[in-house]
């Protein structure tokens, strides 16, 4: 054992450690060993009481062979753990050490491969679902989910203008480049999009991946009982980063700080940490899993970011915190890196913890939950909501700026969305609602509302025919 038994007995049970009094429940013992092998490995210590006292096993020499036989007969594919006897005082403990297995998924023979596979969730064993089993089998076959081709659709299903906008004019997006980035693959003699390409830029993404969207909510208080505001983000995944950030800013506060000859806006939420957490969720979510979108929940004291999909086999939370990274969606990750949303492989979570320390915030919490992984970021100040929001307040930036009034100029007191829209119309005249919404990474409904405000203030107008015209700033 790499750790002394005294040190091991002081550790809490968790993803890689479990204590048992005896082998009186042989199936539960095998479940734990299967779960360890299917996850990040672990140690099962037999002969330990509920208060963590060393009780020992009754007859040490008669314990070692039976548990080995039980493992050999009860688990498939074959599992070969390290079984040893360790003394502490006058007591002898039986320790079964399981290593992460490349033969996963392991399962109980008595239940079969579909019902008998277990994974480790915190200190508990949980029956593995079909999505996890399918992902594990793909990994064993050397397949990656988002690199797989989608021969049922064509390249015209990809939003090429959005792709060009995000990569910028310096990058030529020809067929060779798109194949190099594994956005396109040759299948039966023709080029087709990969799953990663459709996740990133698919025009009808949710027809193929119905849960590939982000649910944002602002809750009153510290739980999910009373929802104050909500928003569904269905933009292309790279654009979703800004749209989620805009939702969070909408419920935060902004103050001005003046330094040497310039003004700096300071937000009441740690945007750098949150942006890293959002990007991490979009890159590492299990998009093959059904029933659970990515969720971003804003409470009075914290923001939780939940992404579907348990940690990849072999990974632990401590690995994540130390900067170890295994990428579930390499196509998505590469595009995010190419367009500047990822700075360095595996550095995002580490930067979140470093930034929390720099700002004097409580250490963020990462935990595996029933549907995947949750990142919890504590806020530097309470954001209590005392009054219910009216319909007109929903969708507006709260606590940051005054609402638009007829006697004010547009730039004198409008929300951030209106200012951003006006700037875009000035710089790129002639755009219509869909293009404006795509450029601002927001919904067409928001754009239409902001356009009405700008029209009422006399700052923009629609020029040209209905089908070909667009919005222009008034002189």
Describe, in plain words, how this protein is organized in 3D.
The strands form 7 sheets. A 6-stranded mixed β-sheet has the order 12-11-15-16-18-17, with helices on one face. α10 runs antiparallel to α11, α11 runs antiparallel to α14 (348-359) and α15 (416-427) packs across α17. It has 17 helices and 20 strands. It has 4 domains: 5-128, Schlafen, AAA domain (Methyltransferase, Cobalt-precorrin-4 Transmethylase, Domain 2, 2-Layer Sandwich); 145-208, no CATH class; 214-378, 2-Layer Sandwich (Heat Shock Protein 90); 410-473, Winged helix-like DNA-binding domain superfamily/Winged helix DNA-binding domain (Arc Repressor Mutant, subunit A, Orthogonal Bundle), CATH 1.10.10. The longest helix has 14 residues, at 237-250. The chain has 475 residues and is of the alpha+beta class. 33% of the residues lie in helices and 21% in strands. The protein has helices spanning 5-9, 26-38, 64-74, 112-115, 130-140, 160-167, 175-180, 195-201, 205-208, 237-250, 271-284, 317-321, 330-338, 348-359, 416-427, 433-440, 444-456; strands at residues 17-20, 42-46, 75-76, 82-88, 91-98, 107-108, 118-121, 124-127, 184-187, 190-193, 214-220, 226-233, 254-258, 263-267, 294-298, 302-308, 365-369, 372-378, 460-463, 470-473. It is elongated.
